[in-house]
């Protein structure tokens, strides 16, 4: 049976929870800050990491070797300033203008036990296989820009970054065998946000 070729990263995609529990799409609505009816000035794509900031709102977490995410962005909703229509969409466009008196909310997969599928890259968006030896290690992130066409993230993990360093944001739980490019060359991994860096489980507040 032929499996699809993985030719680019797509961010962090929730697949299930620790222990084989099913991910049923549960998310938390988290507010994206607005000032004078204009939203936060950075694009956030489906599969990007986000974090709580002072004031209780969220922003994209752009960390690579260090990060303090509260979860993964899975879309947003707001009332469009131009049309007055309520809309939901795959990604948040930077500096979105919203109707007066309204808010922008993101859907965030924030359960610290959530497992995500992610692509391994050697740098930027160059897909690179890793061996089974990565299981149990920690890894850093590559913060590629997402696509305004698909709305998807292009965040990946850095294939050469495996270490025991507890400040690295990603813990590898397993490899994806279906899309392996060789007997011991896995381009997709199952990961979770490292317990020492997730905002719900680390000991440092916002």
Overall helicity: under 10%
Cα radius of gyration in angstroms: 17 Å
Q: Which term fits the overall shape?
A: globular
User: Unreliable runs, pLDDT <50, ≥5 residues?
Assistant: none
The overall number of domains is 2
How many DSSP-defined strands? 16
Mean pLDDT: 96
Strand content: 25-35%
Query: What's the N-to-C terminus distance?
Result: 48 Å
Q: Report the major sheet.
A: 8 strands, mixed
Question: Structural class, from secondary structure content?
Answer: mainly beta
Work out the helix count.
0
- Series of secondary-structure elements, N-terminal to C-terminal: EEEEEEEEEEEEEEEE
Polypeptide structure, described:
The relative contact order is 0.23. Helix content is 0%, strand content 34%. With 206 residues, it is mostly beta strands. The protein has two domains: 13-17 and 112-193, no CATH class; 28-109, no CATH class. The protein has strands at 13-17, 28-32, 34-35, 38-39, 49-52, 58-60, 71-79, 86-89, 104-109, 114-123, 126-127, 138-139, 141-142, 156-158, 170-175, 188-193. The chain is built from no helices and 16 strands. The radius of gyration is 17 Å and the shape is globular. The strands form three sheets. Strands 1, 10, 11, 12, 13, 14, 15 and 16 form an eight-stranded mixed beta sheet that branches. Strands 2, 5, 6, 7, 8 and 9 form a six-stranded antiparallel beta sheet that branches. Strands 3-4 form a two-stranded antiparallel ribbon. It starts with 12 loop residues before the first strand and ends in a 13-residue tail after the last strand.
């Amino acid at each position: 049976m032929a499996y699809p070729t993985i030719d680019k990263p797509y961010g962090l995609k929730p697949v299930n929870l620790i222990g084989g529990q099913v991910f049923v799409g549960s998310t938390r609505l988290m507010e994206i800050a607005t000032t004078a009816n204009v939203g936060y000035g950075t694009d956030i794509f489906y599969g990007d990491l986000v974090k709580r900031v002072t004031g209780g709102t969220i922003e994209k977490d752009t960390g690579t070797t260090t990060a303090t995410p509260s979860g993964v962005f899975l879309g947003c909703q707001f009332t469009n300033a131009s049309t007055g229509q309520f809309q939901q969409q795959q990604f948040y466009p930077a500096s979105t203008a919203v109707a007066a008196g309204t808010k922008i909310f993101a859907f965030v997969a924030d359960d610290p036990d959530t497992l995500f599928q992610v692509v391994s890259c050697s740098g930027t968006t160059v897909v690179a296989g890793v061996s089974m030896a990565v299981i149990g290690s920690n890894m850093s992130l590559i913060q590629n820009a997402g696509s305004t066409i698909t709305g998807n993230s292009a965040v990946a993990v850095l294939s050469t970054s495996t270490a025991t360093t507890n400040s690295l944001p990603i813990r590898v739980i397993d490899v994806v065998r279906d899309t392996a490019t060789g007997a011991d060359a896995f381009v997709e991994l199952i990961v979770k946000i490292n317990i020492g860096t997730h905002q719900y489980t680390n000991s440092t507040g916002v």
